Amino acid sequence: MADGAMTATFLAVIGGASLLAVTARRLRPSDRLPSLEGWALADRGLGPVWTWLLLGGTIFTAYTFTAVPGLAYGNGAPAFFAVPYTVILCPLAFVLLSRLWTVARRHGYVTAADFVRGRYGSAPLALVVALTGILATMPYLALQLLGIRAVLTAGGVYPRGAAGDLVMVALFAGLAVATYRHGLRAPAVISALKAVAVFVSLVAVCWLVLVRLGGPGPVFEGAARRLGGTDVAHSPLVLSPAQQPAYATLALGSALALLMYPHVLTAGFAADGPRTLRKVTVALPAWTGLLALFGFLGIAALATGVRAPRGGAEAAVPMLVDRLMPAPLAGLVFAAITVGALVPAAVMSIAAATSFVRNVYVEYVHPTATPKRQVRIAKAVSLTAKVGAVAFVFGLRDQDAINLQLLGGVWILQVFPAVAVGLFTGRLHARALLAGWAVGMVSGTLMVVREGFSSIVALGFGPLEVYAGLAALLLNLVVAVAGTAVLDRLGVPRGADATDLPSRLSVRRRPETGANHP
Q: 413 vs 63, 86, 420, 514, CA distance in Å?
């Protein structure tokens, strides 16, 4: 049970987050008319510091900060796939986000589906991209609440029964009001507190663990013994050759998928220019280091003898914090992880609402909707998404949300050919991309469900196991390329390309430097 000092620190940080959210209105120019771009993208006006805070705070969610150490606690080395995955993410974001921002700003695009609509001239393809993004985002949003509940329950801060439900509702009520009024500016401001609280508290916890246990060597040796090995080299803390293909494909596929999530693109679109995005992606590895330290804490929880409840490995680090740290600092850690959930949750709800308004409501329901009406509908949908996430958490088992999120990662990866490949070439036919998307969605879902909701699947020949999303993406690409050849041979017309991007991938040489670039 939490003591008074822990609760006081926790409430102080949460109260600070609420106050910061109120100040978000100061970031809004008073002379701008209401617009979806202003509410959902902060008028594309965030500089390098704010963009780094928002993008990092959006990508690195509270559930990530509990799931990765929980996986390390239960399985050892495979948990650390998240580190190379976020390392791979940075150069991909450097190239893709800056290029997509440039096209989106020039043509007024607010979502990835807007870009697809303009690039291929296909409303059906844009619709499936938007709906896939919404479908993949909703369980991800629910997982932020699960992360909060797991942390607070392990720390004794979350009351049992109806009182705990009221705590969850109160936490999200303040976020909902701030997001409703100020849009993306609210999570942008809160992300500053998230960064300070998470970085400071995590460094303090890791330092205390190393001091108490005598350094990293004893930590890994103790964890190896707890996992059943004689030493580190002969324990689950080291990948076996059979695990390496699954580890590598999971890291690569996850990096490709993350950049397609609407909330990540929304945070990227809010930057004030492609140069800002390139600077930010170069600095993003600081957040990756943070994630690696969280994984290390999962190993430390093993070494110190923490006994997480069966099926609740994500509680290992909160239990470690509660055991080792003074009450005020423990309260700071729990509050930091809670605030860490509020930022991505807000951005996810905004992104889902924006996709619905631009690519469903305006496209099919009310094509002449004014900018003011679009903002009003987006606010209502954003609020509904948060309420739905809370109801989802209270109404279904935690495992249901986790299973849906695993499927969500596989699903969102299937829009990669239309969005990412479309940034560099328009040669793929919209109908072929639509067929590839359908094949990828069906095959990826069947693979995951067949394996009992495991994202790692056997290919059917030999012991090789890979990430289901990447296998489905390869099928998707094969169908898209083959379908394009067939449709072009049959003379099936293409939609008009409204972007100014080249229709095929080309390389030109800069005279002044001789450097090649696309």
A: 20, 16, 10, 35
| Per-residue pLDDT of the chain in tens (518 residues, 90 and over written 9) | 456 777 788 878 878 777 777 777 666 665 566 788 989 998 898 999 999 999 999 988 877 777 888 888 888 888 888 889 889 999 999 999 999 999 999 999 999 999 999 999 999 999 999 999 999 998 888 888 777 777 777 767 666 666 666 777 777 777 788 888 888 988 888 888 888 888 888 888 889 888 888 888 888 888 888 777 666 666 677 787 888 888 899 999 999 999 999 999 999 999 999 999 999 999 999 998 888 888 888 888 888 888 877 777 777 888 888 888 888 888 888 888 888 888 888 899 999 999 999 999 999 999 999 999 999 999 999 988 888 877 777 766 667 777 888 899 999 999 999 999 999 988 999 999 999 999 999 999 999 998 888 888 887 666 788 999 999 999 999 999 999 999 999 999 998 889 988 766 554 444 444 444 44
Show the 3-state SS of 22-86.
HHHHHHCCCCCCCCHHHHHHHHHCECHHHHHHHHHHHHCCHHHHHHHHHHHHHHCHHHHHHHHHH
Return d(Cα 11, Cα 8) in angstroms, integer: 5
Residue 160 has what DSSP assignment? S
**What CATH topology corresponds to 47-398?**
Sodium/glucose cotransporter (1.20.1730)
CB 70 within 8 A of CB 294: no
Q: Is the dihedral of CA 34, 37, 41, 47 positive or negative?
A: negative
Q: Using DSSP, state whether 297 is helix, strand or coil.
A: helix
Helix (H) or strand (E) holding 508: strand 508-509
Q: What is the DSSP code (8-state) at residue 243?
A: G
8 Å CB contact between 402 and 150: no
What one-character-per-residue DSSP string does 327-391 give? HHHHHHHHHHHHHHHHHHHHHHHHHHHHHHIIIIIIIII-TT--HHHHHHHHHHHHHHHHHHHHH
The domains of the chain are located at: 47-398
- Two structure tokens written together for 498: 């409204």
- Amino acid symbol at 278: R
